[in-house]
Amino acid sequence: MHAAVCDYISDLVQNAIEAESSLIQLDVYTGAEAIRIRISDNGKGMSSATLSKALDPFYSEAGKHDHRRVGLGLPLLYQTAEAVNGSVEIESTPGQGTVVSFTFDAAHIDTPPLGDLPLTVVGLMTFDAEFNLEFRRTTANDQYQISRAELVETLGNLQESANFKLVRDFLQSQEEDLAQ
Length: 180
Description:
This protein has 180 residues and is an alpha+beta fold. Helices cover 38% and strands 25% of the residues. It contains six helices and six strands, in the order αββααββαββαα.
């Protein structure tokens, strides 16, 4: 199992980047009753046959992982959701993209912690590819949002350590404001 919800987020957004998405939308909601994540992209998408294969832990798309022939991301997500009274929904259309939504029972003793969301999001935004990641964070009382395109327009190269730190500090401050 992954150690944190952010591990699932990272895995799924990285899949969207690798699927040549130009737009990825990441919505993260946390509340007392549930953790809800929705990741949508406009990448390659999957046929129903490919999606069925992707749920097999011993399958990985050819060329995706040069040194291993397994793809544990979606099977582990399904296993965790089942263990914590959650759910997973995947909608995918070849040539149009994929939407993965999952919910975990926030009060379940085996629900993984959220993890370091600011570090995860800024790390995803620094991938060396042409895409926009729109991130929206919501709680029961508040929300904030930001996009990779806005950050690149304002700061330039997000891979520069000073810019990476600025974005991480900004996201951390937004998270602290949500907690108040």
